[in-house]
Amino acid sequence: MRSARRLALLGATATVTSLAAAAGATLAARQISGPQRAALSYGFTPFEVGAQAEDVTFTAADGARLAGWWFDRPGSEQVVVVCHGHRGSKADMLGIGPGLWRAGFGVLLFDFRGNGDSEDGPQSLAHYEQRDLEAAIDLAIERRPDAEIDVVGFSMGAAVAIQVAARDPRVGRVVADSAFADMRGVVAAAARSLHLLPVPLVDLVDRVTRLRYGYRFGDVAPVTLVARIAPRPLLLMHGTEDSVIPVEHAHRLAEAAGEGSQLRITEGVDHCGAYFADRPGYIAAVADFLRAG
């Protein structure tokens, strides 16, 4: 009798644990890939930084309508497309974007699908968003067919930049700040930071992501593609104290990258913190890299 009760209790506990794990995995998958917008629909614009920009709209290959700001620089031979991070917006790029514009580059800032002023569409962590960057590059080339198109990305936007540039020879130069080497690794790092068992949780979240959002973690692995950017110039940037994407991701990317790549590590800064540690110096360093022969 006691054994039967004990087995029943263990079975019930296992069931509750499994249900809790499934619910947690579903919530985690939604946080990564589900629709989620800021509570307030308004934010900063180029007006706040004293820069002139044109509102532009364009469409990704799967029909997602996207919004951007075009900072025109007719005399420049380069246009820089800037990619924001996960759950961010083009307004987050009002430091580096206008900074590069003032340094003499044409610049396009845009919102990934489901963010800022862009419409909704299938969302992910650097998978479906590749279509958005491809469409942004199309727009830049349409407007400036004579210019070199370069890409600067931060966090998820950096992972998107690496993957798109790896297969799109129209991209000239790439700056990837705080990129992750692979999606599985960055999700596992987040699980460890929450004191969860990373492997079982990551596998479960991966399964839910495939079923609900149509892609696998293994589909997003910039480290497997980064070598294809060579010999085009690639600048990888990362902070030693990154609490979101551990700095080892930058070292893995640098090791896998080919000729023409550089790695710049900033001591003591957190995720995407190098810009904020020295704003003028950061803009100057990126501009110098983009101008280099």
Description:
By secondary structure, the chain is α/β, with parallel strands linked by helices. It folds into two domains: 1-32 and 183-214, no CATH class; 46-181 and 220-291, Alpha/Beta hydrolase fold, catalytic domain (Rossmann fold). Helices cover 41% and strands 17% of the residues. The protein contains nine helices and eight strands. It has an eight-stranded mixed sheet with strand order 1-2-4-3-5-6-7-8, with helices on both faces. Strand 3, helix 2 and strand 4 (106-110) form a beta-alpha-beta unit. The model is unreliable at 1-19 (pLDDT under 50).
Strand order of the largest sheet: 1-2-4-3-5-6-7-8
User: Could you give the count of β-strands?
Assistant: 8
Radius of gyration: 21 Å
Helix content: 40-55%
Which regions contain 5 or more consecutive residues with pLDDT less than 50? 1-19
Distance N terminus to C terminus? 81 Å
CATH superfamily membership of the largest domain: Alpha/Beta hydrolase fold, catalytic domain
Number of domains in the coordinates?
2
Share of β-strand residues: 15-25%
The backbone outline, from C-alpha atoms, is: globular
CATH architecture name of the largest domain: 3-Layer(aba) Sandwich
The CATH topology name of the largest domain reads: Rossmann fold
* Main beta sheet: 8 strands, mixed
Number of helices: 9
The SSE string, one letter per element, is HEEEHEHEHEHHEHEHH
Organism: Arsenicicoccus piscis
Domain AB hydrolase-1: 79-179
Keywords: Hydrolase, Signal
Signal peptide: 1-22
